[in-house]
Amino acid sequence: MQFVSQIGGSVTNSLAYVGSLASLGGRAAYYTFVGPFQGKPLRIQRAVSQAMDVGVRALPILSLITFFIGLILALQAAYELRRFGAISYVATAVAISMSRELGPLITAIVVIGRSGSAFAAEIGTMKVTEEIDALETMAISPIRFLVTPKFLAMIVMLPCLTIWANAMGILGGSLFGVAQADFTFGRYIQASLDSLLLRDIMTGLVKSVMFGITITAVGCQEGLDTGAGAEQVGRSTTRAVVVSIFLVVLVDLVFTTLFFFVSGS
Predict the structure, then answer these.
(1) Half-sphere exposure in the Cβ direction for 91 (13 Å, CA)
(2) Assigned domain for 137 exists
(3) Which pLDDT score, from 0 to 100, does residue 130 have?
(4) Tell me, what's the pLDDT at 254?
(5) Distances (CA, A) of 188 to 35, 72, 99, 106, 161
(6) What's the CA gap between 253 and 240, in Å, rounded?
(7) Number of structural domains, the chain?
(8) Which is the most buried residue in 1, 104, 248, 259, by most CB within 10 A?
């Protein structure tokens, strides 16, 4: 009975946590899209600063990682396709894999490591030093003041980063295509573009928006839940990264399944 009780408690806690994430995300969305029409202006300057941190400063590491992943995909695809005399389909395999799945997922993981952890550490530190309490004392909503700029930056920049990641992955695959598969660079790029449908690109972009909302909600929620003491900030940051990766993969599974059944119907 104790085992069953523990399982029930874990399920209840998990559902409560998901509910708190949904509440936080909903309030941030309200302040982003409805608040400006009700006399609650957005902190545009802060949102732009967050967008620079989330997006522009992530470009070097994201470019390097996705370029190498595109090259690895080409090598792995060619290993099997060569057996069937279909090595010319390497460009198609890389382009579709990056656009539908790996581009959004790798982008989300990189952003979790860079920005999701930073959100938790920033807000957690403010919680420990009682700055959150000071905002509430001044009748300033911490959600509107702290979370909304991050929310706006994420839902704008993550799709942009995903498009960039897709492009770098295709470029990485072209390195193999030109060197080993008798492509010219122009022909490889054209083959990649011809293989992509608008549905493939939109699938990745929809996922990236949902990933951005998830990462923001988890990072900020963990920061707001930080206990007393500097040690708790580290724990909140670690938990934000672990939970974000798990939920991003779960969201990816849900949307991939949804798109599969929708496209098959």
Answers:
(1) 24
(2) yes
(3) 85
(4) 92
(5) 47, 16, 16, 23, 22
(6) 20
(7) 1
(8) 104
Q: What are phi and psi of 182, to 5 degrees?
A: 60, 30
Q: How far apart are CA 216 and CA 117, in angstroms?
A: 10
Residue 39 has a pLDDT of 77
11 is a domain residue: no
> How high is the pLDDT of residue 8?
80
Residue type, 56: V
pLDDT given for residue 68 in this prediction = 95
Confirm whether 3 is domain-assigned. no
Ranges in the chain, pLDDT < 70:
1, 264-265
- Does 2 reside within a domain? no
Under 8 Å CB-to-CB from 183, ≥6 apart: which residues? 91, 174, 177, 191
> How many C-alpha atoms does 259 have within 13 Å on its Cβ side?
17
- Domain region containing 35: 16-259
- pLDDT the model gives residue 264: 61
C-alpha 130/C-alpha 211 separation (Å) is: 30
Please report the pLDDT score of residue 69 as a whole number: 94
Q: How far is CA 152 from each of CA 25, 92, 129, rounded to the nearest angstrom? A: 11, 34, 26
SS3 of 133, please? helix
Q: What is the pLDDT of residue 1?
A: 66
DSSP state of 60: H
Sign, CA dihedral 153-154-155-157, equals positive
Written as six digits, the tokens of 90 are 């390497």
Four-point Cα dihedral 19, 20, 25, 29, nearest 10: 90
Q: What is the pLDDT of residue 87?
A: 80
The b-or-e profile of 194-216 (16+ CB within 10 A means b, else e) is ebbeeebbebbbebbbbbbbbbb
Sign of the Cα pseudo-torsion (94, 96, 100, 101, in order):
negative
